[in-house]
Amino acid sequence: MSVPTRPSFRARTVxxxxxxxxxxxxxxxxxxxxxxxxxxxxxxxxxNCGRDVTVDGTPDAAVGMHPAQTELMLRLGLxxxxxxxxxxxxxxxxxxxxxxxxxxxxxxxxxxxxxxxLLAVEPDFVxxxxxxxxxxxxxxxxxxxxxxxxxxxxxASGGCEDxxxxxxxxxxxxxxxxxxxxxxxxxxxxxxxxxxxxxxxEVADATAxxxxxxxxxxxxxxxxxxAIGAGIxxxxxxxxxxxxxxxxxxxxxxGFFAATITPESLAAEAPDAIVFAAxxxxxxxxxxxxxxxxxxxxxxxxQDRLITVxxxxxxxxxxxxxxxxxxxxxxxxPDAF
Length: 337
Hints:
Residues 61-336 form the Fe/B12 periplasmic-binding domain. Belongs to the bacterial solute-binding protein 8 family. The protein is built from 12 helices and 13 strands. Helix 8 packs across helix 12 (320-332). The chain folds into 2 domains: 39-201, Nitrogenase molybdenum iron protein domain (Rossmann fold, 3-Layer(aba) Sandwich); 209-336, Nitrogenase molybdenum iron protein domain (Rossmann fold, 3-Layer(aba) Sandwich). Strands 8, 9, 10, 11, 12 and 13 form a 6-stranded mixed β-sheet that branches. Strands 5-4-3-6-7 form a 5-stranded parallel β-sheet. It is α/β, with parallel strands linked by helices.
C-alpha cells in the first residue's frame, strides 16, 4: 500500500503524530532488567477509554504500537514479553534501551501495521498511543478484531478520544500504574513514576518565582500556520511555567486542539516566545525561517526565543512529554536552572 511520507498536520496529530525524533531525547529514565514478574494467573481488569480491558494472566506476546509505548515496556523490564514493535521507523528508541529491542520483530514502518501483519505475530496485548491505530477503514485491526483474536487492547490514557482536548502530561503515570498491574511489575512502575515526577517537581520549583512569559505554540507546514491551544500540548507549556497565548477556553479550540490562524493575528499577540513542533531537521529549518522572516519585530524573534520540540514528544502517552516540559522551561527561563 502506498503511504504518503508527509501526512497533513491534522492527520498526523489526530493519529500518531508520526515523526523523527529531533531535539528532545528521553529523560534518562532508568532501564529495568531481569525483572521478577508476578504472575498469579488471575485476570486483571482495567478501565481504559471508557471500556473495561481484561487481561487473563501476564501477557507474553505484547506489541508496542509506537516507539513511545515500546520504550515504556522496555523500561519496565518487559523486553522478553514483546512480540512486535510497530511504527518503529518514525522515532528512534533512546540509546539506553535500543539494544533491548534488537530482536523484537518490526511490524509496520512509518504507519500502523496492517490488520494481517499485526495478527500474524499473534499478540495477546496491544498497547497504542491513540485509537487511530485501530481504524478498520484504514486497513488496521480494530479493537473488536483483536479481541476476537485473543488480544487485550490498551490505549494511552491521554490518547483516548474523550481526553484529546483535556489530556495532561501526568496521564502517563496512570498508564504506568496500569502496566505495572497488568504485567506484575508494580515496583518498577512506581520507580519510573517517581523518577519522572521528580523532573516535573524540579521544573515547578525552578519556575515558581519567575515572571511568566507569554508563549504561543504554533505549527507551520505547507504555507499554513496553526495555533495549538488545548490538550497535552497546552499542558506541557503550562507545566513549563508559560503564560499560554492560546487556551482551551477560547472559541477557536472548542472542538479541536489546533486552529488555523493568520500571520496578522499572531503578530498582534506579540508573544515573548514561540514553541513549535518539527518532525525533522528540514522542517525545523523551514519553520524557523518562516517565523524569523515573517515576524522580525516580534519579541519572540528579537529575543531569540523560538523553541523547537519534536513532534514525537508532543503526542499522548510518551515520556517525551516530560522531556519537553523541562526543555521548554530551560529555554524560557535559563537563569532559573
